[in-house]
Task: inverse folding
């Protein structure tokens, strides 16, 4: 997945808020931004690792 593709699938803060605040726990906008950024970082690392491992199979 290229950087352009990653940007296209990013969720808005409003979309994240709807998903995260479905349960009893309610998150602030700042918490939602931090969670979203963390998840994007994890996804980017996973994507890089998949790219590095494709030559090993």
Result:
């Amino acid at each position: 997945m290229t950087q352009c593709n990653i940007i296209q699938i990013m969720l808005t803060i409003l979309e994240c808020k709807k998903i995260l605040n479905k349960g009893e726990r309610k998150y602030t906008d700042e918490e939602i931004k931090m969670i979203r950024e963390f998840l994007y970082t994890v996804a980017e690392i996973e994507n890089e690792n998949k790219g590095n491992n494709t030559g090993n199979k």
Remarks:
- The CA atoms of residues 16 and 36 lie 7 Å apart.
- The chain has one domain: 3-56.
